[in-house]
Amino acid sequence: xxxxxxxxxxxxxxxxxxxxxxxxxxxxxxxxxxxVLDVLNKIKESVDPTLxxxxxxxxxxxxxxxxxxxxxxxxxxKAFLRDYRGTIRVEPLRHFPIERDLVTVIDxxxxxxxxxxxxxxxxxxxxxxxxxxxxxxxxxxxxQFTLCINCMLCYAACPEYGLIPKYLGPAAIALGxxxxxxxxxxxxxxxxxxxxxTEGAWECSFVGACSEVCPEHVDxxxxxxxxxIESTVDWYRAHLMPWTNEEK
Amino acid sequence: xxxxxKPIVWGPFAAxxxxxxxxxxxxxxxxxxxxxxxxxxxxxxxxMRAFASHWLGKLALAGVIGLSLWSAAHRLRITLYDLGVRAxxxxxxxxxxxxxxxxxxxxxxxxxx
Amino acid sequence: xxRAPYERPITSEWIFRHPRYLRxxxxxxxxxxxxxxxxxxxxxLHQLSQGPAAWAAFLELLRSPASxxxxxxxxxxALYHSTTWFNxxxxxxxxxxxxxxxxxxxxxxxxxxxxxxx
Lengths: 248, 113, 118
Fold this sequence. Notes:
The complex is a heterotrimer of chains A (248), B (113) and C (118). In chain A, 35% of the residues lie in helices and 15% in strands. Chain A has 248 residues and is of the alpha+beta class. In chain A, strand 3 and strand 4 (72-75) form a beta hairpin. In chain A, helix 2 (107-115) packs parallel to helix 6 (170-180) and helix 6 crosses helix 9 (220-240). Chain B starts with 6 loop residues before the first helix and ends with a helix. Classes of the chains: A alpha+beta (248), B mainly alpha (113), C mainly alpha (118).
């Protein structure tokens, strides 16, 4: 186990004393196989206990430790020191207000997630005394979109979310789409009010950055394009063939 | 939140984007050859006139011109927003109106042929 | 403890933050060349409707150095639009081999058009 010299440049912000965020440097020696999260933990334990950041599982399943590492949205527990040279710049996840140091205010995402109704709205009740049944093929349709860990790296990568704060955003749309694809679910009409709104899928310009940075390979960009196509088909059918519309 | 009417402009954009992806490179190659002095047979006056005189030719030309211009206009609208131009409604109105005007001009010329 | 969340300002420098954003912008800018070339063709169509002399003048215009440069750029941007569009198609339409089918169709169509036109 050999060590290497590590220098982190971390964006600090104390809401009680600072007018603006500022960078602070930490230099220490760490095992070379560590991740950035390990370095932050060592800093907090033995150098500067005031450093604030979110983390939990340390294995890329909880989605807590998202931050900008050298300008790229990454999970700190998945950012290996061996992939970086020189000073490593660590900042809070972009496009979210900074609460304190590396902790961001995530209320906007949480509210948007709730709006897409990311839960089962059953088409019909389960069979008498039994559970819903689903074939492997039916599961495969939506499985990929269940992998989202709500880490919000996609929101940090998406320039449209940065430019248009009202935009629903990649993860919320992908998760709405996940439930629409579930064979047990009958809530698509309700979700379309959010997904097919102007601030829904339509603010996406298919940059594709969200899918590139997603640590779980959910491919939200793909989900959003499919929502756009489905919403377009819906729209033309509803307007050109109004007799097919259900009674509201 | 109400469902958006974006599909009105997005549908033609997607169609135009697909059309230009398949068609534009080879057509640009043809006019590039003409620009370099080797006018392809199809671009001679008689062949072009014949093509544009036929109702199928008119339909094809109108369709390709209209959809190509529309998808370019829509993309430009999005790009201007990305670059910080905030007056989206105004930009959209101007770009789509210009597209329709140019397409109308093309159709007018096609009807003359 | 009092809260004072800090909002970092958004500027256009996001475009230069990573190559993917620059590539996105190049893709988007292809619309200027595809649109521009189409407008040039609209002018050509107009000249066609004015008779053989006007059409000859249009072909003359095509031969200008500015036109040659524009055409080279337009071809490059049109190709970039095509490749990025086909590469993204599987994301929007998750059908097996759809990208390959698009490329094959594109090649076939281009060959047919060249054969008919030249």
